[in-house]
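Lecture 7 notes: from sequence to structure.
We start with the chain below.
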Amino acid sequence: MHSLPLFLRLAGRPVILIGAGEAADAKRRLLERAGAIVVAEESQAALAIVANGDEAAVARLRARGILVNAVDRPDLCDFTLPAIVERDPVLIAIGTGGASAGLAKIIRQRLEALLPARLGALATALYTARPAINARWPNAADRRRALDAALAQDGPLDPLRDEAADQVTSWLSGAADPASDRLIAITLASADPDDLTLRAARLLGEADRVYHHAAVPLAILDRARADAVRISAPAAPSEPGAGLSLWLTLTP
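Predicted structure tokens for the same chain:
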């Protein structure tokens, strides 16, 4: 990854903004939406946005250890500002590393049309139900697998369904225990992650560990759940371990 995506809590915190005009006004509105206090260059802050192309200001700020965003100058940016889809409390950020703000905008517009207005209500309902969910599945791995199944496409809490937020209580009262320990073998058609089947992509996103032949490329393994253990092996394991394990090979 060229950058590490982060969500910063800026409420009540100072952010330096340098410049005037449409670009600066847009950044000011964005900062104020996040609750930041917009301040001048001489103020103390951890972040700064330079909206007027002033390279000298960028250098001065960096010399003070401040992370800088220079509008329309990705070569001068320590961080970039993504296009945002907001379904409070759900936030989706789309970034291109400064390569194309237009592309990020179009992706945002597509996602805006795709995601239900009540997606945030589902997140809130799940948060409210956390004590009951933790009590139902005390084991963290069981809890994750139960939620994965519920939130999957066509599942009872499918996030692309408008009514999903209203189903949390009924799902919790009737949810079955997640599948027991299992090993699933997947033979990949190619080394290109774009050729993954929907099933393979879903299983990679749910797996506890991924056993794989040495020929399976990193681009495929990167599609696995971030916390999944990756284990290179010459053959499928006889004792894969608890939860969902995958064995990946490439078509000869």
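Points to note: The chain has nine helices and ten strands. The chain has a mean pLDDT of 93.
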